[in-house]
Specification:
This protein has 510 residues and is α/β, with parallel strands linked by helices. It has 20 helices and 15 strands. It folds into three domains: 179 residues, Rossmann fold (3-Layer(aba) Sandwich); 79 residues, N-(1-d-carboxylethyl)-l-norvaline Dehydrogenase, domain 2 (Orthogonal Bundle); 106 residues, Transcription Regulator spoIIAA (2-Layer Sandwich). The chain has an eight-stranded mixed sheet, sandwiched between helices. Helix 10 packs across helix 11, helix 18 crosses helix 19 and helix 19 packs across helix 20. The structure holds nicotinamide-adenine-dinucleotide. The site of nicotinamide-adenine-dinucleotide (NAD) has 23 residues, from helix 1 and helix 4.
Length: 510
């Protein structure tokens, strides 16, 4: 825990680069009580940013989020300046200029001869090594990453990124200052993607793989991640919103920075979109069509079917208990049976299991249960509105129908996927947890920092490591092992942290 104190609100904060991020950061610092100096290379940009932030404060006062006096006072603390020499009295200089190593190095190297020796430098870079920016400085220990998320005034997370030469006291002061500004900071080591931009890669990558393998269409995969996974946006609609130029560039930069580690391999589908100039919402086309008159496709859901076979639920797991209460609420008859070989339910000849990372076809072959039906993971089986399923090639059509009827009776919309291993939510969560575990295992951040970064930086419904504990670390480990064996790819290799937790029979959080 940090013992350093926050900067005092009498101390001047300078923000260089007053575009989308810089303006947001200046707004936060002024609202927290600091005099804030803004500088931009474009003439008038800083003055325009000041006017924009003041208007923002007035709007907040109109909505009752600030008193009118506080809004005027905060607005009065913003000062647009024209020269770096005007920043001599700054205690902290945050840069949010163009994402370019040489530009950032030059900016801070020039500043060193202007500001006091104890002035802290906080770079808002999202992808450049903090260590490399620091290499150009006489006093690199004063530099750390101060990585806000967009839109900065609304997003709670700030990654405080330490480069190789960063003084821990500097990182601690930034941590305390971000906290005083109402943010939730996390410490991270300067490694490619820091925490969020690294751990989030599988959210896009696994969905892209599913699409490439024809598991389901984009709208259906998106709907499953939202309605069963509890994510705010599905991966395809999210990539369309971020823009494929940006999202693909981040994926490529993380992949290259990790020396082409297969775990971060970019997707040919996304490359095609970039090549076509289909960047998503901003260009009118991406995975979806946003042009005038275009209709957003609906997710594929199985039509209502009939079957009056007996339903049995097996054991007392979270999923069987959820199914029991949902069937009861729908007044559908079922009986309960003791746990048996991991099955969760049966109806007629169909036997339902939760996916363990093997395809239904492989599982049917290995278990001798031809009518194997796999269901996907849900964040909360009591509340999910949709479930993805896969059926074995050996499965009889009546058994497939029966399984769909069971899940529909329990109130789920059912999306029948091609028989891909790990389905959508399970595979995504396993890979998110694996990446978070590796970041922790490599000393990039703590377990709590990884979880809190993903909840607050990209609004995940649950931190990936807490989610792994909830699913059972052993189950996650199994899914990864089966994916690894099935695909024969190094991509699914299991993080040593997950393996150790399994061998020690404990949660990752213990
Ligand atoms: N946009 C995001 O979602 C986001 C999120 C987190 C971090 N970041 C990082 O924040 C930084 C800024 O991003 P942005 O989206 O606000 O960019 P932006 O293009 O909106 O703003 C950049 C501003 O910096 C100014 N500028 C460029 N070079 C300068 C220099 N040498 N000196 C002074 N001013 C200069 C430009 O005139 C512009 O006003 C980048 O490093 C980016 O990677 C962006």
């Amino acid at each position: 825990m940090s013992t350093s104190s926050a900067l005092s609100t009498t101390q001047v904060v300078a923000v260089i680069g007053t575009g989308a991020m810089g303006a947001g950061i200046a707004q936060i610092a002024a609202a927290a009580g600091h005099p804030v100096k803004l500088l931009d290379a474009r003439p008038d940009a800083a003055a325009r940013a000041v006017a924009g932030i003041r208007a923002q404060f007035v709007k907040m006062a109109e909505k009752g989020k600030l008193t009118a006096e506080a809004a005027t006072a905060a607005g009065g603390r913003l000062i647009a300046v024209e020269h770096a020499t005007d920043l001599a009295d700054a205690a902290l200089v945050v840069e949010a200029i163009v994402e370019n190593l040489e530009a950032k190095q030059k900016l801070y190297a020039d500043l060193e001869s202007i500001v006091a020796v104890d002035c802290i430098f906080g770079t808002n870079t999202s992808s450049i090594s903090v260590t490399a920016i620091g290499a150009a400085l006489k006093n690199p220990e004063r530099l750390a990453g101060l990585h806000f998320f967009n839109p900065a005034p609304l997003m709670a997370l700030v990654e405080i990124v330490s480069g190789l030469a960063t003084d821990q006291a500097v990182a601690d002061t930034l941590f305390a200052t971000a906290t005083a500004w109402g943010k939730t900071p996390v410490h991270a080591k300067s490694t490619p993607g820091f925490i969020v931009n690294r751990v989030a890669r599988p959210y896009y990558a696994e969905a892209l793989r599913l699409a490439q393998e024809g598991a389901a269409d984009y709208a259906t995969i998106d709907a499953v991640l939202r309605e069963a996974g509890g994510f705010r946006m599905g991966p395809f609609e999210l990539m369309d919103m971020i823009g494929h130029d940006v999202n693909f560039a981040v994926t490529n930069s993380v992949w290259r920075a990790f020396y082409n580690d297969q775990r971060f391999l970019p997707s040919l589908i996304q490359q095609e979109l970039v090549d076509a100039g289909f960047y998503g919402k901003k260009t009118g086309r991406g995975f979806y069509d946003y042009r005038e008159g275009a209709v957003k496709p609906l997710p594929a859901s199985e039509a209502r079917q009939k079957c009056s076979e007996k339903i049995s639920l097996f054991g007392e797991s979270t999923v069987t208990n959820a199914l029991a209460s949902r069937l009861q609420a729908a007044q559908a008859a079922f009986d309960r049976q003791p746990a048996s070989d991991g099955r969760i339910a049966s109806i007629g000849n169909a036997v339902l299991f939760i996916t363990d990372g093997r395809s239904a076809t492989q599982r049917a072959a290995e278990s001798g249960i031809a009518n194997t039906v796999l269901i996907d993971l849900a964040l909360d089986y009591t509340r999910a509105t949709r479930l993805a399923i896969a059926t074995a090639e050996q499965c009889a059509p009546e058994a497939r129908t029966a399984a769909i009827v069971l899940l529909q009776a329990a109130g789920f919309a059912v999306s029948h996927f091609a028989d891909v291993p790990g389905l959508a939510v399970m595979r995504t969560v396993a890979m998110l947890a694996n990446e978070a575990a590796d970041a922790v295992n490599q000393g990039v951040c703590s377990v709590t920092a990884a979880d809190s970064a993903m909840r607050l930086g990209v609004n995940y419904p649950q931190g990936p490591l807490a989610w792994a504990d909830q699913v059972g670390v052993e189950n996650i480990c199994n899914v990864l092992a089966n994916l690894g064996a099935g695909y024969g790819e190094d991509r699914y290799r299991i993080s040593p942290l997950i393996q150790r937790a399994v061998f020690a029979a404990r949660n990752i959080h213990d």
